[in-house]
Amino acid sequence: MTPLFKKTAENDGFHTLERKMVRTLALHRELQKLLEAEHEAGSNFETRTLTKLTLRKNNCINRLENLVGSIRDQLIRMAEKELPRTCPRTLANRLRTIPGLTPDREEVLLPLARELEEENRALIEATRKNIIMFKGAMNRIWAVSRYANQGGGE
Fold first, then answer.
1. In angstroms, how far is CA 34 from the centroid of its own chain?
2. 135: alpha, beta or left, given left = phi > 0 and alpha = psi -120 to 50?
3. Is the pTM of this model over 0.85?
4. What tens digit of pLDDT does each residue of 99-151 get?
5. Which of 17, 75, 92, 100 lies in disulfide reach of 10, CB 3.0 to 4.6 Å?
6. How far is 131 from 25, CA to CA, in rounded Å?
7. CA separation for the pair 120, 61 (Å, rounded)
8. Residue 57 and residue 112: Cα distance in Å, rounded?
């Protein structure tokens, strides 16, 4: 029978946190590829491809949400105190408040945290680009439908 709590909880907590951060990075990259493919398919008006990509993207987003929530919950459990109000709420700053963070763990986790935040900003930009493209496409479709329905008796 496995014990509920392991004796080396702080080590396991940091290793688990590292694994979750690496998995989150992988999901960020997968989502980035999906957004690029979605942009290309949207530009070429490939509706079947867009439908498949949308389903895959929604699945990826759900997994990412669960993983980010899990990381947040673990950081809350591991940290004894909250960040001061004047301190930026970055992942790197939240990691620094965890007691038992050794320099060895810090040199692994902090670059990973910074890379995660950078990937997140890249995802936001790619999403904005897709939104702009789809809004433009919707406006063109609306204009064409208005032109096509001129004599329709509206």
1. 12
2. alpha
3. no
4. 888 899 999 999 999 999 999 999 999 999 988 888 887 787 777 777 777 76
5. 100
6. 23
7. 12
8. 24
Three-class SS string for the chain?
CCCCCCCCHHHHHHHHHHHHHHHHHHHHHHHHHHHHHHHHHHHCCCHHHHHHHHHHHHHHHHHHHHHHHHHHHHHHHHCCCCCCCCCCCCHHHHHHCCCCCCHHHHHHHHHHHHHHHHHHHHHHHHHHHHHHHHHHHHHHHHHHHHHHCCCCCC
Structure tokens at 18: 């590292």
Cα separation, 110 vs 101, whole angstroms = 11
Extract the tokens encoding 62.
Answer: 């759900």
